[in-house]
Every structure is written in C-alpha cells, then in structure tokens.
Amino acid sequence: MPLTNQEKRKLKAAAQHLDPIVRVGKAGLTGTVLQSIEQALTARELIKIRFEHDRDERDTLAGKIADTTGAALIMQVGKVAVFFRAQPLDKTEETS
Q1: Residues 6 or more apart from 44 whose CB is under 8 A from it?
Q2: What is the DSSP letter of 50?
Q3: Are 80 and 50 in contact (CB under 8 A)?
C-alpha cells in the first residue's frame, strides 16, 4: 500500500534526526550490504543510507534497494537516501 503525502512528510521529519547506518561503497550492492540493509529495516523501519557514487548510479542503486527489500524510498538528497518499511504486525497484537 503506497504511503500518503502526509505520511511521507512525517517520515521525512523523523529522518532529519537520523544518521546514515548503512554505507554503499564503490563495490555497490553486495550481498553483505543488502543483508545489512535488511537487518536495519527489520530493526528500525526508517533508515538512512549513504552512497559513494555519482548521481545516476545513486538513483539506480536506490531503486534496486527499494525493489529488493520492499521498502519505500521516502527521499533522496545528495548522497543520502531514506527508506521506510513497516514492520509486520505481531499475531498476538492482532488478537488483543
């Protein structure tokens, strides 16, 4: 389900105070980097990723990350991108 503009604004505001927790280096999206991104999204939902690439490559990599992880690309400014993936609801919370 796509995010509304209001939800994206709230996520952008929350992301202002975050530091990048994953760095995509010159090697690109290696298995280790993708695993780190998956772990970060599972733990935090909202993360910042820093890229060490030119503009066109950053756009391509950001799209691949969104497709691979199922996360939404919230914003991309310079060498930093913000991604969001809601955590699945716990079955015990649904029945409560």
Answers
A1: 21
A2: E
A3: yes
The pLDDT of residue 14: 95
Pairwise CA distance, residues 46 & 59, whole Å = 19
Q: Which domains are present in the chain?
A: 5-86 (3.30.110.60)
Question: Is there a contact between 76 and 53 (Cβ–Cβ < 8 Å)?
Answer: no
Question: How far is the first Cα of the chain from the last one, in angstroms, to the nearest whole number?
Answer: 24
- Measured CA to CA, the distance from residue 48 to residue 96 in angstroms comes to 33
Q: Tens of pLDDT along 8-63? A: 999 999 999 999 999 999 999 999 999 999 999 999 999 999 999 999 999 999 99
For tokens 């935090």, the residue is: 44
| DSSP 8-state secondary structure symbol assigned to residue 28 | -
